Amino acid sequence: MFSRVLILAAFITSAVMPMEAAEQSIADTGRQVVSTPTPTPHRKKKSRKKRSPSASPVRVKKKTASPSPSQKEEKSPSPSPSETASLPTPPASGAVAPTSTVSPSPSQTPAPQKSVLPQKKGRGAANVTLSPEAITNFQSYPAKVQKLLTSALELTTRNLDYKYGSADPANGGMDCSGFVYYVLHQNGVAPYVPDDSKDQYTWLRSAGTFEPVVSGKDDSFELNGLKPGDLLFWSGAYSSERDPPITHVMIYLGREKKTGARVMVGASDGHTYQSQQRFGVSVFEFKMPQTENSEAYEGRERPRFIGYGHIPRLNE
Question: If 0-12 CB within 10 Å is exposed, 13-18 middle and 19+ buried, where does residue 136 land?
């Protein structure tokens, strides 16, 4: 009897323990399920931290079609006025941004060029030009004289050099007699105009309009008959066997308003203006060689002023 009771107790115990183990297993599984959190949208938002909340300057320069609000507010470190003005308005999402045209900055706009004659390298001071208004009583000159001198002064604005044997500004320079020939020929002052200084001298001597000057003083009475448009002649500007020995010629302008000094125009390889040597087609001061700066003739013979001549029918 007792053995039957033990067997029955063992049977009941073996049946109850698996059930408890099963219940415990089910309870543990339930706790694991409950304790494991379900992924929420909040977790997904955390994964977006990899994106930068603001755009870099490079993105701004690329001008994307649909910029984010932070891209609209982003500014490049040092935008130029032209870049800021040319930034397009952000288009609607999905629309293609129009190509922007960058306007030239103020530094790219060519500045107006100054009318200043550049100085030639190693050849004295820069050439000089004067307007007709800078000459005393220019408006009272005869019409033919005004026309002649205006065309002569225009050549001084071209920055032409002294070029021996040239009578054409297209060559980049002219010599003294070539300058006189070109100006007189262009203005039609005579049917025939010589192209050499000694021949121009002979032309005026033959016409009876030449006035010799013996004195070497600037205030000599021999200069009282000098008129604007007259030709001025020198000898000894360089060594020559010429007959007559005329080596240089210029055109007389009158007196400069600002200084009151006599001025002339032509091509020279060493005449002075305001005591500085000029080389080329320019305005020069008309002075007797004896009174000019001695440095202008250093190393060469000092020329001698011979006289002046009136161009026939120019003052009519």
Answer: middle
